[in-house]
Fold this sequence. Notes:
Layout: H1 2-23, E1 27-32, E2 40-44, E3 49-55, E4 65-69, E5 72-73, E6 85-89, E7 100-105, E8 112-120, E9 128-134, E10 139-144, E11 153-158, E12 161-162, H2 165-168, E13 170-174, E14 178-183, H3 188-191, E15 193-201, E16 205-216, H4 224-244, H5 246-253
Amino acid sequence: MKSKMELMFRPLLFxxxxxxxxxxxxxxxxxxxxxxxxxxxETQLDKTVSLVCQPDGSHEADEELLWLRNGAAVRLxxxxxxxxxxVCVTPVLYEDNGATFTxxxxxxxxxxxxxxxxxxxxxxxxxxxxxxxxxxxxxxLLCDIWANPSVSSVSWSLNGSAVDLLxxxxxxxxxxxxxxxxxxxxxxxxHEGTYQCxxxxxxxxxxxxxxxxxLTEKTxxxxxxxxxxGLVVVFFTALLAFASRWSRIRKWCK
Length: 254
């Protein structure tokens, strides 16, 4: 019974200690939207995050403040340094995900507080794309599934039915950023049609993108370099033959 009670109160004790630490760190950061007990601010793309920092009661109210973003100094105007300092992140971008903003006293680097942005965004999937590929060549379709939080599932369909990996010789790979559907030596009867990549986000729902694949007849490709080399050989052979018969040609032309 005692061990269960300890497990129940251990998270609460941690948050209380964290709260006390932020209050006695020398500075206080107020945020809009508000941060959680771990200093994480939940936000979304194109939103605005406001941060306001000021010394706590243990320091002079007019002390100079510094802001850091991932350890690099944030440029502030002179009137935005003394006693109270604010930073505005607008609009929130992909690059702001995971960014840590730290405010501290210039004269005392240990008097500091930090918050971190957690930017959520859906996979950028929409619309359709036309793809033309020659018969007997390779088909490669790329589906961007980069999202925060990560998508919970990804699926591929062909003409409204789930892609038959075995029958079509397909393979699917997923690295967390891109889902790739490939097929070697495509055939019209097996591979032509409308493909759809569908990703499901735990908070943004379902997003999809279509690929309209058309197969064209295989063309005979002549290697360029051997072809050019052959033309050069023919040209110089004809030139030498002409030069060797030049005297006879001149005689005939008189």
